[in-house]
Input
Amino acid sequence: MSALVSLIVPVRDAASAKSRLAEGAGADAQARRASLAAAIALDTVAAARAAREVGELIVVGSLAEPLDGVRVVDDPGYGLLVAIGAGIAAADPAAPTAVLLGDLPALQPADLDAALVAASEHHWAFVPDAEGEGTTLIVAAAGLPHSLRFGADSAEQHRDAGYVELAVREHSGLRRDVDTLEQLTALAALADTGVVLIGPRTRALLLT
Output
């Protein structure tokens, strides 16, 4: 049986997050963008909290509402990599550590569990996004440091840094991060055909 993983999820404040989800510059568009950003983060963290392979769950930044079993630590405010570093520093040093991006509204606990179990066979492992260029999850065995490469071409960067790519199906919610309206629309289309399940908070906004 694999050891429970300390999971870090960086989440930006919804007021400034996900600028590319706005359908315009007006106040209504910005309010909807902020609501979508908050809902996506909450659905992601709630699904991760329900995963059986996750031990402690640390959010770096803020959530629009509290979730049971989730510890929130302050974002130092110097970008994504520094935020992730703060989460790792707050985690149990005796446990495997993982970093999950907070923009996966179709994440299912079983998919995360399967990836974490598979990752336990390696010193370092990662999951690429659906396009194969970005990264949605990295995992390191207990006692091993991470080599954080989030950013442009992060999948290749993590691979070059020694992370083993895990075999996760393309349409898994674990690979479907949402940064743009186009990605959100594509995810909604997959949900309409039953290929993915979108979390309840995000789904409710898509129906309005």
